[in-house]
Amino acid sequence: GDLLLTPVRSLLSSSSVLLYTLCRSVDVYGFIKSLTETASVTGRSTKSASGERLLAVETLGELLSNDKVLPRISSLLPEVFTALGKCTRSNGVNIKASSLVSIQKISDALVRHHTLEGNGSKLESPFVALGGLEDKEIVEILKIIKKSGEDKSGDVRLSASRLACSFAPLTVVTPTPKSPSMLNHLDELINFALTNLDDEHASVGRGWAEAIGKACNGCIIVNRFQAQEAGVEAAKREVEDEEADAGGKGKKKSISGDGQG
Q1: What is the pTM of this model?
Q2: Engineering a disulfide at 39: which of 83, 191, 197, 199 sits with its beta carbon 3.0 to 4.6 angstroms away?
Q3: 254 to each of 242, 250, 258, 260, how far by Cα in Å?
Q4: Mean pLDDT of all residues in the chain?
């Protein structure tokens, strides 16, 4: 029906964003849950055939990339990414590419929000969004990028490369005892992009090259930060050692003076 028309979908999507941006009393949380359910529909259902599923995917991207809406519904991101990931495994090229574009828009918004708000660390940069996503969400989106990056459709592969470029800053993670490296996910993204530089479509190859460039910028910033932190720690230990030595010498003099008395 009419929902298959791109201008109609764009109009409905934009209207939804205006409504939930301007009217804070409206239940945006419930609306996004409804969109997520619609996007998760599989098979040849009425919703899928009428274009309602595609509309839901596009609206999720527009709504969650809005700087006023995103902070209010961040707890729903795992569900949204799962639903959009399911769409990337559909048969239709349009639904696959649109889902990747929506994830890209949300990724851009997360990086933008992180850069503006900061996270209290010294690693605040457009190339590094430390803490922007949970580890399991990063793993999920990396799977989506890798699966879509090998799709037979050039349009889907192009969308995957553009998503990789937007998503790169979010792959930097806070180190833990189990995973001490901050760059494991970013390295994985770079390695996958490198294997796809020679795509048969030049635009796709350029997309992966841009993703690599952005990811490498993130690596440089993280490595520089870690080197600075290591230097600061080394300087602190040196000062502490000097103070300890000075304290020890003072005690020896005091003991020696008492003996002479």
Answers
A1: 0.82
A2: 83
A3: 19, 6, 6, 10
A4: 84
Distance, CA of 182 to CA of 96 (rounded, Å): 30
Written as six digits, the tokens of 45 are: 């259902």
Catalogue the long-range contacts made by 128-133 (C-beta closer than 8 Å, 24 or more residues apart).
128/169, 128/172, 128/218, 128/221, 128/222, 129/169, 129/170, 129/172, 130/172, 130/173, 130/174, 130/182, 131/174, 132/169, 132/170, 133/77, 133/170
Model confidence pLDDT, tens digit, residues 53-97: 898 999 999 999 998 888 888 899 999 999 999 999 998 899 999
Q: Which two tokens stand for residue 137?
A: 């969400």
CB 21 within 8 A of CB 69: yes
CA geometry: angle at 30 spanning 27 and 35, to 5°?
125
